Amino acid sequence: MFKFNLLIIAISCCVCNVFGKKQECPGADAQFEGTCYKVLPDQYDWMGGVAACANTTPGSTMLAIETEEENEFLKTWLAGAIAAISNGDYKYAWLYGSDLGENKNFLWHNSNGTGSHPFGFDAWGIDQPSSKPHYHCMDLNLEDNLFTWDSYPCTGFLNNSNGEPVAVEDFVVCEYPMPSLWE
Ligand SMILES: *[C@@H]1O[C@H](CO)[C@@H](O)[C@H](O)[C@H]1NC(C)=O
Ligand SMILES: *[C@@H]1O[C@H](CO)[C@@H](O)[C@H](O)[C@H]1NC(C)=O
């Protein structure tokens, strides 16, 4: 029995090695259930983030959090990833959701860039989405590990109390489907 187990372990390791050679998510920082994730640690406005993701990998779009399970995965992974890249400077990540189609009707944009669809679940922060005008683009609030959604001006700038524009540190997480092993 012992020998048999060893044999199985030896065979599984061979299989691992063969398949391990092909990276499941090339160029990605993380993967979860068939989706690859990549952090772009720069500051973007919302449209800039959309473009930056599209330029990263074919089929890549900004992050849309579709399920509670994906949300749980992202909470754990992103907390560590952000601490590593920015010493905690990056507190907001753009999400691929907006009410740009219809005012105050927030939706996820489809990953093919055409049309949108409703949330499967939502995680709006307190008093979100904002009732303020111009707050049309969605953002993931990572401050204090809140992991809630806000609506923000798509420019990434807020006006301070003196009416001066202040940039918000909005970085981008891109997602794209895991390439098939058999392609
Ligand atoms: C984009 O995706 C949506 C949702 O999956 C689909 O209904 C629509 O037909 C797609 N559009 C194109 C141009 O592929
Ligand atoms: C900031 O102030 C400018 C100038 O008054 C205004 O045009 C802009 O809409 C304001 N931005 C937001 C997010 O309120």
Shape: globular
Oligomeric description of these chains? single chain
State the CATH superfamily name: Mannose-Binding Protein A, subunit A
CATH topology: Mannose-Binding Protein A, Chain A
Order of helices and strands: HEEHEHEEEEEEEE
List the uncertain runs: 8-18
Count of distinct strands: 11
Bound molecules: 2-acetamido-2-deoxy-beta-D-glucopyranose
Strand content: 25-35%
Write a brief structural summary.
With 183 residues, the chain is an alpha+beta fold.
Structure explained in plain terms:
This is C-type lectin domain-containing protein. InterPro entries: C-type_lectin-like, C-type_lectin-like/link_sf, CTDL_fold. Residues 32-154 form the C-type lectin domain. Keywords: Signal. It holds the Pfam family Lectin_C. With 183 residues, this protein is α+β, with helices and mostly antiparallel strands. Mean pLDDT is 87; it is low at 8-18. Strand 5 (107-109) and strand 6 form a beta hairpin. It is 27% helix and 26% strand. The protein has a single domain (28-177), classed as Mannose-Binding Protein A, Chain A, CATH 3.10.100. The chain has 3 helices and 11 strands. Bound molecules: 2-acetamido-2-deoxy-beta-D-glucopyranose (2 copies). The site of one 2-acetamido-2-deoxy-beta-D-glucopyranose (NAG) has 4 residues, from loops.
Explain the layout of strands and helices.
Elements: H1 2-20, E1 30-32, E2 35-40, H2 46-56, E3 61-62, H3 68-86, E4 92-98, E5 107-109, E6 116-117, E7 137-141, E8 148-152, E9 157-159, E10 165-167, E11 170-177
Parallel strand pairs: 4-11
Antiparallel strand pairs: 1-2, 2-11, 3-11, 4-5, 4-7, 5-6, 7-8, 9-10
